[in-house]
Design brief:
With 117 residues, the protein is mainly β. It is built from no helices and nine strands.
């Protein structure tokens, strides 16, 4: 069953971005009739910009979200270390079929139940 979604990310929509290296934590709950998802993780170097959550497929009660960011330019000098990133997604969902959120990164994924209204 597909969910109809209207989403407003915390950052303006840009290029698709690349998956961040890893997701460390996720929370998902209802706030004022909207689903709010917060993800924290890390990228593999400095220079990454605009971390965001991109809505993917919904099915079987699970909404899949990709955790992406814009990587640094190839000629940009950046620190070579894990750098923390975070993103928030607020989505008005016109169905109650979403019971859990799966956030996907390059090396892992984290699933959490959606806390009820």
């Amino acid at each position: 069953m597909a969910a109809t979604l209207l989403a407003a990310a915390s950052a303006p929509a840009m290029a698709h971005g690349k998956l961040v290296l890893k997701v460390d934590s996720v929370s998902a709950n209802w706030r004022h009739h909207a689903l709010v998802v917060v993800a924290k993780g890390a990228v593999k170097s400095g220079g990454w910009d605009n971390p965001r959550l991109r809505i993917g497929k919904a099915g079987g009660g699970v909404l899949t979200v990709r955790f992406v960011a814009t990587p640094p330019a190839r000629d940009e000098t950046v620190i070579q270390a894990l750098v923390p990133v975070a993103a928030t997604l607020t989505a008005a969902i016109h169905t109650d079929s979403v019971r859990s959120i799966k956030v996907v990164a390059e090396t892992n994924e984290v699933s959490v139940p959606v806390d009820g209204p």
